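Researcher: Sequence of Ribosomal protein S12 follows. Predict its structure.
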Amino acid sequence: MPTLNQLIRHGREEKRRTDRTRASDQCPQKQGVRPRVPTRTPKKPNSAPRKIAKVRLSNRHDIFAHIPGEGHNSQEHPMVLIRGGRVKDSPGVKSHRIRGVKDLLGIPDRRRGRSKYGAERPKSI
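Model: Prediction complete. Tokens:
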């Protein structure tokens, strides 16, 4: 505990806050190239393997991004677009890949929440 004289001379130091959007440079989306797609097991109460992609962004940052939805068509070194949004049960994963943009296809037969998964509007009967 500092003395009153020490506080007068030096004052209190502000706590530095960590920047969660360091890799994205404050941009809403960022383009990158995916070197590999591993799967990762989530934190304690959950157990299904999560599809995680390591992405090298256009500003040379390497991050892990979650691939939303069921199934994906990721091959070697495709161009992808990422957005923010962390995955609560996967440590270190703070972004998502955007489906239906660049080389990541949308989910073809999706009826609900289509805009989030890059799905086409179904033909009316």
